[in-house]
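Question thread 4412

I'm putting together a teaching handout and wanted feedback from people who do this every day. The idea is simple: show students a protein as raw sequence, then show them the structure tokens that encode its fold, then repeat with a second protein so they can compare. Below is the first pair exactly as I plan to print it.
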Amino acid sequence: MKKTINLLTMGCSKNRVDSEILMRQLVANGFDVSYEAESGKFDFVVINTCGFINDAKEESINTILEFAEQKKHRRVGKIVVCGCLSQRYREELKAEIPEVDAWFGKFELKPMLQYFNAEYHCNLQPGRTLTTPPHYAYVKISEGCNRTCSFCAIPNITGSYKSRPKEEILEECRLLVASGVKEIILIAQDLSFYGVDLYKKQCLAELMEQIAEIDGLAWLRIHYTYPAHFPLDVLDVMARHNNICNYIDIALQHISDNMLTRMRRNISKQETYNLVREFRKRVPGLVLRTTLLVGHPDETDQDFAELVEFVKDVRFDRLGVFTYSNEEHTYAFENYTDNVSEDVKQRRMEEIMAIQQQISLEINQKKIGQTIKVLIDRQESEYFVGRSEGDSPEVDGEVLVSGANLPIGDFVSVRVTDADEFDLYAELV
């Protein structure tokens, strides 16, 4: 009998890619691997954790505890934990949760396989088992981060920036497209820095250009860029290629010079406004996604007022807000006092989100009557659910198409008939 494994991923799409690589190795070694199965008995459960901020850590720990309870009732044989939380707090967690049978860090694929008495296959093609729908895939182009943002624990978890060689990334993208993938989403902690360590220059634009030239690739999308020293040649490549989505995810975090300095973001308020203007000038119709951080130590009412004004001025297409989490071993933890109350943090987050919801509603309602191209992801109730060029999976809104039987993974033209602050409603043209 094959040993059975249930593999779960917490946190970001970068973790998902790590899980897909592990899953492919385990399957190649003869294991029967399920991905995020909601029921059933398994010999092992493997939990790939997130350790970024308090909410993510709590979710990962609660998931481990849930399976510890299942283990007591013999619905799970052994529990294996890996990923960022385990990388960061392994020794403390070992003491706190003895029900876990093995702990591994984020970069311990080979030791994990040894634990399963499995061989590491270095030449597997494909190198991962996709856990996304087969028509899109994430491609991780680097590990680590060289930024020194005051609030962020990621560099402590993942180490310094390590770009993957272009040839390796291109080969992976070619294999994915040949297997039927239509949309590739480039991900990294910081796409903007790609290439500096290997090639002594920023190479994101060059990489995007080469990927865009792969026959059969319909969409190329980029996630997680950094504003300081943003490689503006990316915008020229984006404008030149029809199959590169006019979409940028850039974490701006704040706008007041006081906060940008204290956050160690290496960019000013004026430079940020200039960058946004450059985006929209060079790539007409660009969909701009950002994340903001409220409640950082010493954020004043005036700092927050500037942030509110910024959100109203720029009118981002997509926007998320986090409240500051006082993370061990970060610059802010060691040098500042967490002096903004949780109530104020929450209130500020809610105020920004209320403003953004109104902006999003207005942007979406302007699309009523337009015809747009949509990639169909799945069927849900009476709708076929898809995404436009401006919608990334899992983080953005969707397009709900009614009145037609549509093939999953195909592009269709639809006419927008209605809209709310999150989603569009449409019918087949």
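The second pair follows. I'd like the answer to focus on this one:
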Amino acid sequence: MKNLMVVGSGGREHALAEKLKRDKGVGTVFCAPGNGGTALEEGLQNLAYKDFGDLARKAKDNDVDLVMVGPEAPLAEGLADFLQEKGISVFGFDEKGARLESSKAYAARFKQNYSVSSPDFEIFEEYDSALSYLEEQFSRSEKRFWVKADELCGGKGALPAFDLEEGRRALHELLQEKKCGLGERVVIQEHLTGEEATMQALTDGSSLVLLPSSQDHKQVYEGGKGPNTGGMGAYSPAPLMDEVARANFKRAVMKPTIEGLGREGLGNPGALYFGLMVDPSGKPQVLEYNVRFGDPETQVVFRLLESDLYPLLRGAVERRLNSAAEDISWRDGAVVCVVLSVSGYPTDYGDEHLRVEGVDKAEEREGVKVYHAGTTLEDGEIYTAGGRVLNVTGYASSLAEARDLAYRAVEEIDFSGMHYRTDIAESAL
């Protein structure tokens, strides 16, 4: 039996660990550090760690066969490099490859250099020159823009610049107030019209195995209003990614990306996420790369994976992903995920320690699985730990049934100030 480790503490990591524990030949899945939900699951074991060295020691002490890194921050900090140097197998991009997510400027130039279908952009390090660019653009065109922090920003570093005043505020926040990291650089990216979708893939560095399509809901309020969050819900598959859109994706996005990975020496085993804007003709353009599975897209996509996940991860690490994926199988049907957060999210993650009730009752419904994100377990009771708290997923034969199931399960759960969107997957129906 193989012991595995999943690094991270969110809903994505709960979903991945829960899937892995059901694989044939898998013993214990250690969750470092895990959360209240992973503490409850049989076959999962939470494991606190102090630093990378402590994590590596505990992986070896517990005879861990493979480490899977969930979040982007430790990848950008070089965790995969560190573990590999210690002789530990790891599924996750090295620090160099993680620049595709940790530096929006690097990613923008990468897409440009390898002719990946993507929006126009400019990169600025100074507030005045960036503002002058926007003033010039707005004076002679009706284009709209997004101002993106170059650094990691927890999914909240993209600010709209649909008019000059918005652009000025965005530049002020990111370059002068430095609300995201060092605030040394921004990417001003052309706003595209269409509908967003997500494609994700496993990679061994030279090939990609695509997962089912999905769609995230970033804004905190219904109708795509309010500030961006880490994601308030998702569904899979996304009807938007039909045969035409998928064919265009493979030709104009997937193929040149793989070529670029090889030429740039970024070919590590890991997860690659394509955040897309798809126009009415089915043309996708890459808004962003991530070097890990999406959250909450993971929670819906991996409920559709019928075959085992571990052989795919091992195959990627051993650079034989295509052969490992020959027997991959997916369930028919659809999955909808509704994220439950504290009331102030995303500006206030909440310091209150609130008791969560009704999760067991929600999971009594056939097809429902609740993944934990911001929770702790104390004396057998679940409490909030801030931010996004729970991810309620419903699986059914159709998207409409899955959506209805997820929201019926949400009604069983309660904690003070609980917030969620009521329109997840509505547009797809």
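Top answer:
Good format. For the second protein you could add a caption like this: The chain has four domains: 2-92, 120-190, 195-324, 334-410. The chain has 15 helices and 23 strands.
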